[in-house]
Every structure is written in C-alpha cells, then in structure tokens.
Amino acid sequence: MKRYAKTIIAFLGLFAFSCENSPTKKPVVKIDSVIKKTLIIKQVQLLQIPKKPIQTRLKVVKSILKTSVRYSQITKGLNRAVIENGGQGFGICLERSPNPKKDGAMGFSKTYDFVVYEMYPERQLNIAWFSFNPRNNKLYEYDPILDHQKQIAFDKNLLEQLRE
User: Beta partners for 142?
Assistant: First the structure.
C-alpha cells in the first residue's frame, strides 16, 4: 500500500507541475519604436502654438464690476471691518444672468445682476446691487432707497475681451 501511495503522490506532483501556468504574454516593445513615438510627440508639442486662456463672459463681466470705482469704494477695508464685527468676510453673488444654468445664477435676466454681501454666522447682509447690461455695455448700481439704477464707470478696455 505504501508503494501505491508513493506512486499516486508522485503522479499528482507531476500532473500539477506539468500544467502550463504561463502568465499572459505581453507584447514585445522595441526600444526604437518607443523612441520614435516619443520624438514625434515632442515635435508635435513644439509645433503647437500656446493659446491665450479663454475668458468666459461671466469672468469678464465680474472683472468689469471689480474695476469700477464704486465697487472699490464699497469693498475697501470691508473684509477687515466685517471680521472685526464677528463676521467671516464679504462676497459677491450672481443672482441673475442671460445664461443662468451655464453661469450658475439663480434666475434669468437680460442683464448680469450681482449682489455684494457681508457674511455673518447668523445671517447674510446684502449691501450693494450691481447690474451689467451686455446690450448697451453699461454698468449700473441699484439704489434701493430711490428705486433707481445709476450708471457707474468701469475699465472700458475690458469690453474688447467681452466681444471676443
């Protein structure tokens, strides 16, 4: 019986090692082809002309707002004052725009309507409202007391970026 057990164990051992357990074959890559592909990629990268970063309409309109003298007057020292009063700072929110989904606005309007606000732990205090009209390229500040929009000055050079 011992003789048969040794034979069976030997047979099973040979059977286990005789099965071809080769790993999946990887394609052989020649170094020359890798070097050629790398050189081609480098040549293409050298031929590409660096592009000017694309400014979205919303970014340009925000720049128009931020270059206005009135916006600078309102926000100068505002962050420090809000923090000293227990707040977190101030922010700008786009309330309405001609493309509300694309711009992340809350609603539709033919103008870009912004609100400048102070942030406090218990509330948000709106302090100024601005509107940019892309049809006549004018920036306005809304006066809630007189219920009137007053035209304000801004950097007119930004209008060229808006046209692009």
Answer: 129, 149
